[in-house]
Amino acid sequence: MNDLAILSKAMIQERKDIVIAILGGFIAGIAGVFLFSTSGYLISQTVFMPPLYTLIVLTSLVKMLGLLRAGSRYGERLYSHRATFSMLSRLRTTFFAKLIPLTPGVLNKKRSGDLLAQIVGDVESLQFYFLRVAYPPVIVVMVFLATILFTSVFSIWIAALFVLGMIVVAFVVPAIVLIGQRKIVGHVRGQRAALSTEFTEVLYGFRELKVYGQLKQREQQLQNISADLAAGQRREAGHLLLGQSLHTFVTFLISWGVLVLGASLIMKGQLAGVFLAMLVMASLTVFEEAAAMATLPAYKQDSEHAANRLTETVQAAKEESSPSGGLLSVQQGVSVKLSDIAFQYEGEWRPALKNISLELPPGSKTAIVGPSGSGKSTIVDLLLGLRKPTEGEIRINDVLLEDLNETSIWAAANVVLQHNHFFRGTLRENLLLQGEDYSDEVLTETLGKAGLPNKSLSDLVYENGENLSDGEKQRLAIARVMLRKGKLWILDEPTSSLDYVTEQRVLGHIYEQAAEDTLLLICHRLIGLDQMDQIVVVDQGRIVERGSYSELMEQQGYFYEMKGIERQMVGEDRA
């Protein structure tokens, strides 16, 4: 896949503005050449004291060309930048849309700061692909060809000199810049991404770094990365300056060449002296249009590097995301079946799950218990399609999970995770994330069922719920899920931060609302599990026991021992 294919598609969508910009750029360029050529011819003519009408015509032509150049240049800038900003907008939305199906897997491979650098920095860099890479060669070729044809009318030798100069500024100078640019390609962008990544982590972990006395060390690390970035940017700017300096040198060299060659041709009688100033001014102006060619390699490599990073992420999104498939009805009862499931995290030597087979009939209540790290939450990720099993298959309503549309799965599932995100805004706004319009009475009643009767809907919630306790976060997440209408409940440690009394009250409301629905409860506390149809005990990624509460207690196995330990701990706490 071509790294710049996504940008090429965006350019095609903005082809109207691009064509107008190219037309405006050509008119502005050729008008500039004729403007300065006419000025040089006018200066030369004044020496010979021409008729007044000749001077009037030439002066009027200079004014008209000046106005034409200014107007067309304005139009060229207007439409080229409008096309560029429209393309950037399309690229941002396209990249973000491709990124969504990747989560949370992409966050396990890329740090959030790096993703932020891609969304902002890499996409922003692609604006230069059109303005500095694709656009200038078209204008340069068009203006140069027109100027060479114009010059060849007066002297084929000077036209040949223009051709030589065009080859140098279009190929030789960019090649010299490219040789130096290869040494630092990707370094500046990589350092910018590293700085964004580290800065994001410092912001997220500021309190922990402060508490553990590591803030100074991370600040120093940020300063080192920043210094490295600044040094790379200076080297990058130096290469751009080198290209511009070489271009200026070649421009003056060609102009001096036109002057010397023109003088020689005048002495031989092959060129009228009145045209010499005109040709010199034309050489100065036409090479001004080619100035962008000197820095083209730098912008080209920068754009290619940014496009490559974006393409890698988009390609990964295509590989990770599920195809559009069957829809899971929100109103339909849900059955779930896991057959010989195994899963191993990338880079881990030990599988997180091994030979997991589990069936959840419609309307059943199932609890999965076990020690921390036993694989309980991984099962939740697999059921929601957030990860794909290494082996085995998952079926929902007898349909393979990968054949179902991801959005319909999430719409049909009422999910409370261990860590829930809350957005800055009011409690009402955080409760109405699904977009449905509930009355304040319904929202207040739901808060009461979730154990938040004293909260007001207008209370402010900080970003990620920073002003809420862990227990309040869990209860708000439960209230949010109580407003959903799905038939599959997946609750991952929903009440781990609540006291016993509040926990039983909240779970009672959940069981009442989910009486006819399929419910999967992930927990490490074993209180109240006698209401479950089946209890599955997981340890080290394997199912070690399963059965009803009474059956497991009669077996006096793993679950029985866990229950005994919990009773001892509760007794010690009460004592």
From TrEMBL:
Q: Where is the ABC transporter domain?
A: 336-565
What name appears for this protein in its UniProt entry?
Thiol reductant ABC exporter subunit CydC
InterPro entries found in the cross-reference section: AAA+_ATPase (IPR003593), ABC1_TM_dom (IPR011527), ABC1_TM_sf (IPR036640), ABC_CydC/D (IPR014223), ABC_transporter-like_ATP-bd (IPR003439), P-loop_NTPase (IPR027417), Type_1_exporter (IPR039421)
- Spans through the membrane: 18-42, 48-68, 129-150, 156-179, 249-267
Q: Does the keyword RNA-binding apply?
A: no
- Compartments where located: Cell membrane
Bilayer topology annotation = Multi-pass membrane protein
For this protein, the record's CDD domains field holds: ABC_6TM_CydC (cd18585), ABCC_MRP_Like (cd03228)
What gene does this protein come from? cydC
SUPFAM superfamilies, A to Z:
ABC transporter transmembrane region (SSF90123), P-loop containing nucleoside triphosphate hydrolases (SSF52540)
Q: Does the keyword Lyase apply?
A: no
Q: Which UniProt keywords apply?
A: ATP-binding, Membrane, Nucleotide-binding, Transmembrane, Transmembrane helix
Domain ABC transmembrane type-1: from-to ranges:
19-288
- Which molecular-function annotation in GO is an example for this chain? ATPase-coupled lipid transmembrane transporter activity
